[in-house]
Amino acid sequence: MATRAPSLFAGLPQGLFQSMDMLQSVCGFSENPPPHPPPCEEVLPSQVVQLEKYVAEPVNLPGGLSLLKGRVNTADVFGVSNSDLVPGKYEGGLKLWESSTDLVNALKHEIQDGQLSFNGKKVLELGCGHGLPAIFACLEGASTVHFQDFNAEVLRCLTIPNVNLNLEKAHKQQACHTDNAAIPTKTTALAPDIHFYAGDWGELHSLLSVVATDQVDLAGEVDKIFLEEDVLLDDSGSQDGSSANQEIPASSNQIQQVRCTRRHSQCHACEWARDSDLSEGGYDIILMAETVYSVSSFKKLYGIIKKCLRPPNGVVYLAAKKHYFGVGGGTRQFKSFVEEDGILGAHLVVDIADGASNVREIWKFFFN
Ligand SMILES: C[S@@+](CC[C@H](N)C(=O)[O-])C[C@H]1O[C@@H](n2cnc3c(N)ncnc32)[C@H](O)[C@@H]1O
Q: Would you indicate the residue range of the signal peptide (predicted)?
């Protein structure tokens, strides 16, 4: 049975609680060293556990979007009460953290602004917990959606029921709209290939089916992109549906310069495609919320991203707090860690300073 370390922070305001638990996690304030992580495993939808106390409730997001989520008791699942996080045992997946709804909002705006499309994409949510961002990807037409959480129990008791609830609701709404042909409908295919994976980031990549099974010639694909650019010369095809607003150069010399610069910069992705495990597939979009609180996990988190992100156009959306105070983790620390490697660059999508918590940020990472 997992136990929580005696709180060094008793009496502190409730609002600080989540960061304080994370502080214990990162600084190793627990009485014992973190236990060996649970084994990596695929959790089948049939292994769902319908807890009697699973209570479904709406999460209403700005702009009229409403998703459904369950509420389960940490004590019923892990036998741990009043704990957001127990390092190495339970990493917080039963709670809905603020940044995950920030991320859904940001994704919605990215789609509206023409910067992102989930249509036909392969998507992975790392550290999913409730899985709302990846559920949103399902509803937006992704072809493959994989949910990952540290704990199989979280997937069985919460993520799978959440996915079922939201897809059932969407199917019903689609059926209603189809019956009433007068109402225009969004014709999204709501039948993605969905899988659930549990385990530690450090051991996960061998389990993720999309990395091993797709037969895609990525090096060929990268060359094809260059060829298409040579024909079009409009400089509009950047990461994942986004459009770079650069002016078209006037002279053929300038055109040649742009072509060379792009060839040079895309070479990182090109080399990466050839050298990495990804000669056979990968994810187009990786989503994650509140996964960068522990500096000690950065290496394995970035490691799994590198192993799974599909060059040259794969992107990662990260939503998290700018700083987890007293801990050292946060978006800025993770961004620096990633950029040091030189393979991915980053762009701030939005920051949220609503006073509800530390400043939160959404970052988009892409191949340099
Ligand atoms: C704070 S929770 C965030 C849950 C959810 N994304 C949200 O924002 O509501 C952190 C998540 O990161 C994942 N996680 C943390 N450390 C991990 C590790 N070493 N390996 C795999 N997953 C990990 C856990 O699955 C956990 O659900």
A: none
